Amino acid sequence: GRTVRTRAVINGDQLTVRVTGGGEDNYAISFAPVDGGRRLRVTRRIYAEQLNQPVVIQSIYNKISEVARWDIYGEPQPAAGEETASASSPTSPVSTNGRSGARATSGGSGEAVELRARLADWITVTNGRDIRKQMTFYMPTLKAFYLARNVKRDAVQAEKVRAFRGANSIDIQADAPEIVFLDGGRSALMRFRKRYRVEGRNLNRRGEVVQELRWQKTNAGWKIFSERDVRVIR
Predict the structure, then answer these.
(1) pLDDT for 48
(2) Do residues 47 and 54 touch, judged by C-beta distance below 8 A?
(3) Of 233, 118, 108, nearest to 180 (Cα)?
(4) CA trace torsion 171, 217, 152, 198 (10° rounding)
(5) Of 78, 85, 165, 175, which sits with the fewest C-beta atoms within 10 Å of its C-beta?
(6) Of 158, 101, 107, which Cα lies nearest the Cα of 135?
(7) Residue 225: helix, strand or coil by DSSP?
(8) Whole-structure pTM value
């Protein structure tokens, strides 16, 4: 029974969208490029009747591609001049459960092939519940570990031990990952669909997510410095 008004205004290189009339709460969101378009500032303002002033949330996003990736959750399409890697099929599995081992997909640059192999090995040791070996894949400090920031490797290990306590079997499978190289090839952003099943006497967890791993190239090889889920599918 309400009339909701949405107004979008472009002023120079800034886009502002305002929504009013939706009830007690109204909001506005603005998009503004910074650093010559290399980053994007997104400012959200939420207006509530119970507050004297709006709640303001501001985020900064780094540009990682010259074109919009509308298919980012499917098979990636490389932008012109951008070094990316993908498998020949978006649904071909990078890994299976620990009983069958793991394999890296073909195609892409040598670094991308190595990263896909690292992902396959990471999943294999996870399925084998070898937490000690899994920790060798991580940097001493992770910039992000799901909702936490600047997490020590020991804390990551403790959380994985807690999460898998009581599990008789772990089965994680991943589709072919999208890989985007950053910082002149010194780091890489990897996203992939992950299906998981953790079972035990009093444990039964399963689901599907889009997971993101960020890797740093070191003298000891590629290491994970960020692990999080970017989308819950089921």
Answers:
(1) 82
(2) yes
(3) 108
(4) 0
(5) 165
(6) 158
(7) strand
(8) 0.57
